[in-house]
Design brief:
Largest sheet: 7 strands, mixed
Oligomer: single chain
Order of helices and strands: EEEEEEEEEEE
Distance between the termini: 37 Å
Strand content: over 45%
Structural class: mainly beta
Length: 112
């Protein structure tokens, strides 16, 4: 199992970023996928989740209405579209597959 995130970086408050997670080594379309984040000095928290077929999603209250999780089972990828970003969104973002499989994480910094 391999999960590789991309798309992070530095963005100004109010800006947008799209994170991608490319999966390999397993039957991607059979698994729920999640995005987590961990800010400095804080515990890792669930940001968003999507069912295997993409028909149902979940969002943490702090990102609901601003972030959108989606997936492309043909490309074996899951995405996190982040809009109206705030400094509190600054964190390392991780892609996760049920069973304890994590990506390496990617830094998102929201700052002016």
């Amino acid at each position: 199992v391999q999960l590789v995130e991309s798309g992070g970086g530095l963005v100004q408050p109010g800006g947008s970023l799209r994170l991608s997670c490319a999966a390999s080594g397993f039957a991607f379309s059979s698994y729920y996928m999640r995005w987590y984040r961990q800010a400095p000095g804080k515990e890792r928290e669930l940001v968003a989740s999507i069912t295997s077929g993409g028909g149902s999603t979940y969002y943490a209250g702090s990102v609901k209405g601003r972030f959108t999780i989606s997936r492309d089972n043909f490309k074996k990828s899951v995405y996190l579209q982040m809009t109206s970003l705030k400094p509190d969104d600054t964190a390392v973002y991780y892609c996760y597959r049920v069973g304890g499989y994590w990506g390496q994480g990617i830094q998102v910094t929201v700052s002016s």
